[in-house]
Amino acid sequence: MTSKTPFLDTARRVVLAEADSLYTLAAKLDDNFRAGVDLLLNAKGRVIVSGIGKSGHIARKIAATLASTGTPAQFVHPAEANHGDLGMVTRHDVVLAISNSGEAPELANLIAFSRRVGIPLVGITKAAASSLGSQCDVVLLLPDLGEACGTGAVPTISTTMTLAMGDALAVAIMEHRSFTAEHFRDFHPGGKLGAQLSRVADLMHKGDALPLVQLDTPMADALIEISQKSLGVVGVLGTDGALAGIITDGDLRRHMDGLLGLKASDVMTTSPTTIEPRALAVEAMALMNDRKITCVFAVDHHVSGAPQGILHIHDCLRVGLG
Asked: Where are the alpha helices (DSSP H) in 91-140?
């Protein structure tokens, strides 16, 4: 236990030093931040984010965060920019260049190109008078607080503050544009997040895949429909085309005697559980779990009451809900 104590002491010192740096950064944010946000907001093209080394890793994350929250953005490696990738940068873009010291030589051509062509340049650096800072339209200054390693050799505090600055820019722009969870889903269709924000209409079976019969459909034909559509149920349409009922496995068991001599209207359960197509899929899954059912028809009661689709609990599980 004693041998592990220094490691824990080091870990706590590093984490607390980085946490303290974020408090300092927050206190020092000024009108330059507002000006930087304005430049990024007014870009007619993309935000070109660039940096080298550890700053480059942070720049990639910032570009990804901007892109996923509605701001077209792209990371451009400064070394590749020096060998042709400057062609990716247009007059309609804004460049966000990152260098803790402000003296990364790899950024020189990108900075010069932005000045020559008249592309707005925003810099994140700790040195306002540096090669980067002196050329920027807007400088987002990082407090010079050293690094958590104690020697100043390992980017730790500086990269944490840079990452936070990038997140602050992205969220400020996102809130200004009223970027909602639904917009976020459009950029994150996959994975757990996309599944949680999916709507019933995104996952439901529709069209020819819908198991449907009429009120007067013989049960022999209704059974064929259940079997062919493989969802274990069939919806029963009223004369007005609205969903009048549903036939489930339980309904079949309750009418075993003389089943084939009956019509769908004789067997169905009336007033079945339904859900709006625009509802979140997680709401549909909660409804199915609560009612102990495996399927729910999607019905827009504001239109015709006709079923527009059917969602099976397996559809929800398949995309990671549950």
From this structure: 108-117
